[in-house]
Design brief:
With 246 residues, the chain is mainly α. The protein is built from 13 helices and no strands.
Length: 246
């Protein structure tokens, strides 16, 4: 089995299967990136950051692996609200990205950084650079929908955000990607909760709240089942704020 297969397993949320393969393989830069990706998905951010920082500038790593490491490191930094640091790393990597797929992932990361910094113009510029159909198959398509969801939330358009989250969920389900499915549910739940909170007297507000809570419960359960602790934690926090909870 190749390291590409281990990466595919990791992207599908089958973390134990991915790591079982990496333990049988040589400790190549590609394998170390996969291990760091799984660490990040599980919430072991400090360990992931250390590994990824080394890979980003490691001469032995291929340009592809350095770009993958930069994209994953950007995601890790965003988890602790270090958006400006992530932006610096991803901007540098995007300039030399060796493939259209990796450039798309780095631009998606830059758009997410801009969301965190509250810069709608920068979000729109990054999304325009990606185009409507990014290279990279289902994973880049899902990530682009996530960042478009975040963009609409930043622009106070939660129902438009929910539309992007639904499309991300549908793509994730077709791909059998359990972590991406859980995160898409998280975005859907957050978007609908925001819609209900902004217009509590709307005739559909109660339905939005119910659907939001259902999506967040499923996001929490599914992420816990695969060990994706960051998603479970955020879903739990949002459920705790739900006005319908006792």
């Amino acid at each position: 089995m190749s390291w590409e297969r281990a990466a595919e397993l990791a992207f599908q949320g089958r973390f134990e299967a991915a790591l079982a393969h990496t333990r049988r393989a040589a400790t190549s830069p590609e394998v170390r990136w996969i291990t760091a990706y799984v660490d990040a998905a599980r919430g072991d951010f400090r360990r992931a950051e250390r590994s990824l920082e080394r890979l980003v500038s490691e001469a032995e790593a291929s340009p592809d692996t350095r770009a993958r490491a930069a994209a994953t490191l950007g995601s890790v930094l965003r988890q602790s609200a270090r958006h400006a640091e992530a932006q610096t790393i991803e901007r540098r990597a995007a300039k030399t990205a060796p493939t259209p797929e990796l450039r798309a992932h780095l631009l998606i990361g830059l758009a997410a950084d801009a969301v965190g910094l509250g810069d709608l113009a920068a979000v729109d510029a990054a999304v325009k650079g990606i185009g409507p159909r990014p290279a990279g198959g289902w994973r880049s398509a899902v990530r682009l929908r996530w960042v478009r969801c975040e963009r609409e939330l930043l622009a106070n358009r939660p129902l438009a955000a929910a539309g992007h989250a639904r499309r991300a969920l549908a793509i994730s389900e077709r791909a059998g990607a359990r972590r991406h499915r859980a995160k898409s549910l998280l975005f859907l739940g957050a978007s609908l909760a925001d819609a209900a909170a902004r217009d509590p007297s709307h005739r559909f507000a109660a339905a939005w709240r119910r659907e939001s809570e259902g999506a967040l419960r499923r996001a929490r359960a599914r992420s816990l089942s695969i060990g994706a602790r960051p998603i479970a934690r955020i879903a739990g926090q949002l459920l705790g704020r739900s006005p319908g909870r006792r």
